[in-house]
Amino acid sequence: MEKVNVELDGKLYSCRGCGTHLALADDLISKDYYCPNGKAFLFRNVILFINVRSNVSFGVPEERMLITGIYIIVGIFCCSCGQNLGWKYESARDKTQKFKEGKFILDRGMIDDGANSQHNIDTAGPVDS
Ligand SMILES: [Zn+2]
C-alpha cells in the first residue's frame, strides 16, 4: 500500500472518485507533504494549465494555519464530482515558504496515481512532450 512508484514519465494522477485527470506526474514536486487527511503530494501544476478547460475548480481564498506556517490557500475541487482534492498556495507568510506559492497540494487519499489501475495510463494518450 505504501509502496512508492517512482516511474513517473507520462503518468497521470486522477480523481479517485471519478477518474478525471488532475495532474501530470512530471509536475510532481514532492510526496513528502501532509494534509488533514494524511499524506499529500505537492505539484507544480494541476491539469488546469494543461487543458484550456480546467479539470479543477477553486474555492474562495482563506487564511490557514498549516504545519509550516500561515498561508493564504484556495481549496481545489474536482470539476466532475466536486470532491475536495486539496488546495493551492496563494501566498505564504514565511519567506522560507515562498517557493510554495502558486503550487498545489493534492490529498493522497483523493487521487489515483495509476500504479494500481491501468485506466489512467490507457486513456491518457500521448502526454509526454
Ligand atoms: Zn472527481
TrEMBL record:
Please, which domain of life does this record's source organism belong to?
A: Eukaryota
Official protein name in the record: Protein yippee-like
> What stretches pass through the bilayer?
65-87
Q: Which residues does the UniProt record annotate as the domain Yippee?
A: 11-115
Family, per entry: Belongs to the yippee family.
List, in alphabetical order, the Gene Ontology terms for molecular function in this entry.
metal ion binding
Pfam families (alphabetical): Yippee-Mis18 (PF03226)
Q: Cite the InterPro entries for this sequence.
A: Yippee, Yippee/Mis18/Cereblon, Yippee_fam
Keywords, alphabetical? Membrane, Metal-binding, Transmembrane, Transmembrane helix, Zinc
